[in-house]
Design a protein that fits this description.
This protein has 489 residues and is of the alpha/beta class. The chain contains 18 helices and 18 strands. The strands form three sheets. It has a nine-stranded mixed β-sheet with strand order 3-4-5-2-1-6-7-11-12, sandwiched between helices. Strand 4 and strand 5 form a beta hairpin. Helix 1 packs across helix 18, helix 9 packs across helix 12 and helix 10 crosses helix 16. The longest helix is centred in the first third of the chain and has 17 residues. The radius of gyration is 23 Å and the shape is elongated. The two termini are 15 Å apart. The structure holds adenosine-5'-diphosphate (ADP) and alpha-D-glucopyranose.
Amino acid sequence: MTSAARILQVGAEIFPLIKTGGLGDVLGALPQALVRQGFDVRLLLPGYPALRQPLTDVQQVCTLGPAFGAASIEILLGRLPGIALPAYVIDAPSLYERAGNPYVDDQGKEWADNAARFGLLGWVAAHLGLGDIDRSWRAHLVHGHDWHAGLAATYLALHPQPRCRSVFTVHNLAFAGLFERELLPTLLLPEDSFGLDGIEFHGDGSMLKAGLQYADAITTVSPTYASEIRTPEFGCGLDGVIAQRAEQLHGILNGVDYEIWNPATDRQLEVRFDHKRIALKAAAKAALQKQLGLAVDPGALLIGVVSRLTQQKGIDLLLQALPALLADGAQLALLGSGDAILENGCRALATAAPSQVAVRFAYDEPLAHRIIGGSDVIAVPSRFEPCGLTQLYGLRYGTLPLVRRVGGLADTVIDADDASLTAGTATGFVFDAATPAALLLAARRAVALHRQSAGWQKVMKRAMAQDFSWDGAASHYAALYRELLAPST
Ligand code: ADP
Ligand code: GLC
């Protein structure tokens, strides 16, 4: 191919404009890293107010509808602040113009029309690859992220002349994107797509399964998760489908945007530091302890958590191990929101020991940086973790990860056991069983190492030197795209 291959990146959130978790971070950074690999990359996003309003240099590319339950649909092309790539935004006010979260209302209930909202996203993506939405830019390859973009691959595969290749990335297999069979006509899907070897999942349609079934290649966000999801334990009922497509499945570890997550330049930190000025981290810790009302005690091991509070994240394991850790003198700084039972558990511990436990139930980007920057340890005790980003951020800030050996956590943290401490390769603390006891043992190893300042600093330096930049990840995607786009022999 002489000119750069045209790649469309499709997803439901993007940092810094709209983010609920790691997916937003990935869509905020990977597309730009792909430009550095030599591709002509554009984005396709739903026109929520957070994306429609700041769009500038707007061109109206195409008018559609009525379709997908919307009377009018405009496909716009423009620029978004903080994002260096051209973005197609779907302007369909009746589907996207509402306050709050992309997926749920302010009671946490899924928007009733999510199937139409994200079905349209997939349909527009496919037609940007078929060439009938924007005649001046036809995507050679459509790359959809998570169930929200799962139908893109399906519309392409069901088209008689699919002129475009597709990649589907699973960021989290636990979200199936279910919809009722009755919606097939609304989603412009044929009845015969609804079968066990199609998009059906236990009597409903699944946008996640649609992506898995029809994409030319499937990726997930770490090599270990790519192996795990072929098993019943992690497969969420889709392990059979995934095993059948094992040859098309690739595990590509996420990267970190070190422009945003860098302790030397991070404007959210009161005190900045780097591997050469490691002693300054103590001041960042003291500032965090003060801000959160914890005892300003340099000797207390400060454990940070920045997380959705869900079953996935294993926060219940941490809460059960916490009384013993507090007795050892440790502290907890937790930022998150989600499950009411977990929030209540956190609140009870904070009320009982306010100088040792501080919890904030909010989405707070500056505080996330301060906790990741100022804590000694970042805890990610997940039951499953496709990649996990906060442990990667922690590494760069010398905040040692305390993680369970699953998914991307297993791929990114080297346990500080005797061998790795001697070899100088240790970067954190890893445990195996999803039990409070296993977590406690690993956390106690952290408490003990923290008491030996020189040993702790050695591991910190090693952690800070790890390089998980996006360029490495993007080169793997680039190789995959080139393979898919190569003329077939
Ligand atoms: P997941 O995508 O499963 O939630 P990741 O570790 O991949 O987990 O990414 C989580 C992202 O969301 C990180 O950027 C983290 O800092 C951020 N985050 C999670 N909870 C909060 C919160 N309450 N406030 C601010 N940022 C948060
Ligand atoms: C998902 C996963 C998380 C991953 C993120 C970005 O939300 O839960 O492990 O890091 O997507 O890929």
